[in-house]
Amino acid sequence: MQRPVPAAVDRATALRYLGASGWQPVTALGNLLDRAEKLVWGVATPRAVWRTLPVEALPLQGRGGDLQRHLQGCREVTLLAATLGSQLDALLRRLELSDIALAAIADAMASVLLEQVCDAWEEELRTGLAEQGRFLTGRFAPGYGDCPLELNDTLCQAVDSVRGCGLAVTPQHLLTPRKSTTALLGVADHPVTGAKAGCTTCHLRKTCAYRKRGTTCFSNAEPADRGRENCADSGSI
User: Over the stretch 138-150, which tens digit does the pLDDT of each residue have?
Assistant: First the structure.
């Protein structure tokens, strides 16, 4: 299903994804940001599909302790699959062959846009459940912590993501189109928070540029970004 999308891409977060947190958008960089955002908006087609099921309806046992902790106290789980569409993949491939700098910025902006639209869809879900006296955890994606990527197969099949939003899973359990994500959100009849994501649950923790510098994306975040449930550098919302 289609939902409203943000009016603009969060450039501060995109710069942080690029390892350029705190940079001022001088003319040359500002022009690249403008071009990249225009190109991304020109082809991105945000779509999502979700479904709420009883926890026991899914084969979640043996899928890692982190997921079990995330869903603790929840009787239901909402499965979310979202994508920015295949045209964005084609754009990024073209840019990677013609303009590496622009390609890197467009890639970062697409990642930020995907997280922003998922934040908006999650808030819509949260508001609807609140009206029913129900509560929602944050998003937890296959690949976080000790939760295997193989769970993508089960999740996408359960929500029929191919027909629902055009998102498929490769034999390696990765998502296609490239700028896509899946998530599980616990549902309960009392306030729940789930497992907060961070370095221990980020699948980029072994190659993270921030950690190599002795810091984290959390400590480099703008004040408004602190406390978010999804690791800003994970690319998995």
Answer: 999 999 889 999 9
